[in-house]
Amino acid sequence: MLPSSEGDLEHDATPEESQEVSNSSPDASTGELEEGSYVIVRFEGKKTPYHFVGKIVNKEEENCWNINYLRCCFDDSSPRCVSFKEPENLDFFITDSESIIKLLPKPTFVKQKLYFKKNDIGDLRMR
């Protein structure tokens, strides 16, 4: 069963299954990018832009970051959360800072999935 609200994330999972991601990421309002931060990255498509959530692995050079991209689970059973997971084959890509449009708060981790509040993601077209 997927959580239907932020409170459900804490109550539905056992302690082994539910834990906050241990990497400390900065508050989304600070705008500071650092290793372990979760971000939304914009890619230009042929007709419309697409957005991916990723975790910053390390800084490669000035204004370039190595990011591990996650996949959206497209699960509508949780009206207040959006879930993501790591793909079977990890997806790393060097990304410039200009493509990073938002720094996300720390997600909640439940059963191999990362949950972000929909308010944090917004109405962006996610992949």
Task: Tell me about this structure.
The protein is mainly β and 127 residues long. The chain is 9% helix and 43% strand. It has one domain. It has helices spanning 6-12, 118-121, and strands spanning 18-20, 38-44, 49-61, 64-69, 71-72, 81-85, 91-96, 100-104, 108-110, 113-117. Strand 5 (71-72) and strand 6 (81-85) form a beta hairpin. Residues 1-30 have low confidence and may be disordered.
What key phrases describe this protein's structure?
10 strands; 2 helices; five-stranded antiparallel β-sheet; disordered N terminus; 43% strand; 9% helix; mainly beta; single chain; 127 residues
Spans of at least 5 consecutive residues with low confidence: 1-30
Helix content: under 10%
- The side-by-side strand order for the widest beta sheet comes to 1-9-10-6-5
Spell out the helices and strands N to C: HEEEEEEEEEEH
Q: How many structural domains in the coordinates? A: 1
Number of strands: 10
The tally of helices reads 2
Shape: globular
Mean pLDDT: 79
Radius of gyration: 14 Å
Q: CA-to-CA gap between the ends?
A: 22 Å
Instruction: Report the sheet with the most strands, covering strand number, pairing sense and barrel closure.
Output: 5 strands, antiparallel
* Share in β-strands: 35-45%
Structural class: mainly beta
